[in-house]
Amino acid sequence: MNTLIILLSLALWGVVHSILASHFAKDMFKTRFYRLAYNIFSVISFAPILYLLVILEDQPLYQVSSPWSFAMLGGQALSALLLLIAVLQTDTLSFVGLRQLFEEEKAGQLVTRGLYTWVRHPLYLFSLTFLWLNPSMSVNSLVFNLDVTLYFIVGAYFEERKLLRDFGEAYAEYKRRTPFLIPGLKF
């Protein structure tokens, strides 16, 4: 039952999050505070899912012992650092929604430098490596990780459609030469 609760809560969050990320929702609300409100809502609405992971009964699956657990924790630290770098390579203030508080919103720019040279979705890639490199895994965390991974893959598909509409041939060319999530593999 706990697995179903986690799956349903993440699915509901994912649907709402995706609808609110669409051009349709953004056009419907037409406010310069939209991006900031969207991000705040996303964090607040995700908190109950994390709470469920803490309070629901759970079964351990494995615990990686040292020295491998230290290697995995190092991988998580590296993933967190690369995730931060990827965020900083975007227009971070616009990404969060703070720039729009002080300036008129401008059309986004296609970021193809830095980590985006190697992979189209470094934010997803490094979030996923952070999740999956946890040295302890339980049933609930496995369900959570699988669901988030699926959400990122499906979300990236729709995000890429949106990016093709927004940036046209520039994004199509970038897509042809840059791997989806895994360097070396073209999707």
Characterize the structure shown.
A two-stranded antiparallel ribbon has the order 1-2. It is mainly alpha-helical. The chain contains 9 helices and 2 strands; from the N terminus they run αααβααααβαα. 68% of the residues lie in helices and 4% in strands. The chain is globular and about 50 Å long.
Indicate the percent of residues in helices: 55-70%
**Overall shape:** globular
What is the percentage of strand-forming residues? under 5%
Query: Could you give the order of strands across the largest sheet?
Result: 1-2
Helices, strands, pairings?
Elements: H1 2-21, H2 23-29, H3 34-55, E1 60-63, H4 68-88, H5 92-96, H6 99-102, H7 122-132, E2 136-138, H8 139-167, H9 169-177
Antiparallel strand pairs: 1-2
Helix pairs in contact: 1-3, 1-8, 4-7, 7-8, 8-9
Give a quick rundown of the structure:
The protein is 68% helix and 4% strand.
Which features does this protein show?
187 residues, two-stranded antiparallel sheet, 9 helices, 2 strands
